[in-house]
Amino acid sequence: MTKLLTCKDLELYYDHIYALKGVSLEIEEGETVALIGANGAGKSSILRAITGLTRIWSGEILYQGRRIDHCQPDDIVKMGIVMVPEGRRVFPYMSVKDNLLMGAFTRTDRSGIGKSLDMVLNRFPRLKERYSQAAGTMSGGEQQMLVIGRALMAKPRLLLLDEPSLGIAPKLVQDIARSIVAINRDERVSVLLVEQNSRMALRISQRAYALTTGRIALAGQSVEMLNDERVRHLYLGGE
Ligand code: ATP
Question: Which of 20, 43, 166 to probe ligand 1 with, by most ligand atoms within 8 A of CB?
């Protein structure tokens, strides 16, 4: 497999907070990789570093073999790295349709944009049903589908998902998990999935990294991590 993304020894500070203490991770082309860990472990900081929203202090980020850690966030989107941030930030007064079209703002290929829109609406029939509805009136789970759909409109090669299951009803968490699997499989989009729902993340990913206070504490195949005593104890609530 080809390396899509490589993070080497990332260090990141916020004023006096040492948030990432030498984090290295890799994503191969076509993989879904999970990043698990408690609140404040540094998961979002890794995503913000990859997308250029927060500058790393030291280390390297390579995408398709090219350094991107000095690139601007909009250029990183154009290269195919698209993040769905935590908190389902939809444009509440805009329709589902217009929210989706906003996701394509970096693109100029009109026929390609139309194809992406069809793909998103087929993938999320709920969005088709609510196409003209104001996004802010939808349920949390539906809004999560919308922000994932909006990210797909940018035609990502690598999708970074920050806590897609947070605060969502269990039934919809399953739907979202299934959608992530389908996007990875059918659209050939690689995924880096940040989750506090470690069990779900380990079930739908091939490999995983577990983060503890700014360091990778454990890494491996997700199936093996699901059965690992230390992972069960530290990240799966001791079950
Ligand atoms: P959560 O699940 O709560 O989002 P996380 O694992 O994503 O947690 P980060 O958000 O990356 O963790 O935060 C890592 C550390 O950096 C935490 O101690 C956090 O308080 C701190 N931090 C994050 N953003 C900032 C900021 N803008 N200014 C100061 N400290 C910050």
Answer: 43
- Average pLDDT value over all residues in the chain: 92
Position in ligand 1 atom list of the atom nearest CA 214: 14
Across-strand partners of 83?
160
Could you tell me if 97 and 132 are in contact, meaning their C-beta atoms sit under 8 angstroms apart? yes
Q: Model pTM?
A: 0.93
Other beta carbons within 10 angstroms of residue 67's beta carbon come to 11
Whether residue 10 has its Cβ less than 6 Å from ligand 1: no
Tokens encoding 56: 């790393």
Look up residue 135 and give its two tokens. 């996004």
Q: In what order do the strands lie in the sheet with 66-67?
A: 17-28, 3-14, 58-63, 66-67
Q: What percent of the chain has pLDDT over 70?
A: 99
Rounded to two decimals, the ipTM of the complex is 0.90
DSSP letter at 102 equals: H
Residue 172's pLDDT band (cuts 50, 70, 90) = confident
Rounded CA separation 35/201 (Å):
8
CA distance 84 to 94: 18
| Sequence-distant contacts of 128-134: CB under 8 A, at least 24 apart | 130/96, 131/95, 131/96, 131/97, 132/95, 132/96, 132/97, 133/95, 133/96, 134/92, 134/93, 134/94, 134/95
Predicted pLDDT at 238: 53
CA of 40 to the centre of ligand 1 (A): 5
Percent of the chain's residues with pLDDT above 90 = 78
What radius of gyration, in Å, describes the C-alpha atoms of the chain? 17
